[in-house]
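User: I'm preparing a small set of examples for a lab meeting where we compare how different chains pack in three dimensions. I only have the primary sequence for this one, and I'd like the structure in token form so I can line it up with the others. Please keep the answer compact; I'll paste it straight into my notes.
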Amino acid sequence: MSEVNGKRTIELKNKPRIIATSSLVGSKEGKGLYGKYFHKVVEDDKMDKATFEKAEREMLQEVIDMANQKLEENGNAINMLIGGDLLNQNISMSFTAREMHLPLLGVYSACSTMSESLAIGAIMVDGGYMENIACATVSHFSSAERQYRFPLEQGTQRPPVSQWTVTGAGCCVLGKGTNEPKIVRITIGEVVDFGIADANNMGAAMAPAAMTTLMHYFEDTKTSPDDFDLILTGDLGILGSGILRELMADRNFPLGDNYKDCGATIYEGLPNCYQGGSGAGCSASVFSSYIYKMLTTKKIKKMLFVATGALLSTTSTQQGETIPAIAHLIELEA
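Assistant: Understood. Below is the structure token output for the 334-residue chain.
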């Protein structure tokens, strides 16, 4: 049976493996820092569909199918789905699952949905309840923007603190495996709200949640940032990752050169990307491609993956609410 270290961190006895991954991104993301590592880059963000929302569902379907094909090469197959997206009622995941006839746990944790999916899947595989669980998430710039902010046709000027919702999807299949990267511990995050009300400034809203989860993890495990080759947050962006550095330094747990953020780096070198990327597909696509390759080649041997999510909605914004946020942590070893 898995054990709880301290108050928040679960140590997994059987160490589930990530036995296959896949990733798919849009043309903009394909031109960024990790372009050559993504499994597929599509030039048409509509993917020959009538709407961006239908394209988003198609992206999710494709990454799950690509991961399943890798399993089938070894005589296996996905037998459960866990994941979600940013659209109301998780429709991208639900509508994808209706075609697959597999057990589904649709989860929502905004941009931290991938780490939450991995945490739930790891517990289920570790306990022997399921095998070959596909954890997948997706987001699309055009569908998210018009749901959370303004109609695209309006051409609203983006403020300097804003991030660019990643058009992308990622899938990780958890199973027993042998030599693949393994999940060692997980820390479930708590909802944190530091009073940020600007729906465009999600990095500032999410940074305190990342700090809270990291501090719980370090306190539970008696470790420090220097014990890891990489500490990777999901999509705090340039501004948010800078705030996280300040928050951790104030608590005497400074983050060094081994700290990176998917959102701050995914568009590196591209113009007009403001604070970087965000969205459920941001950390999912980066982790499932570049980071997974670094783990499998043992260029990264021990790391923390801390995806972050801003738990706002159009309804909460209209009610004048501030933005609660959450971060879930996954510890991995090559």
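A couple of notes for your slides: The chain has one domain: 1-334. The chain has a mean pLDDT of 94.

User: Perfect, thanks.
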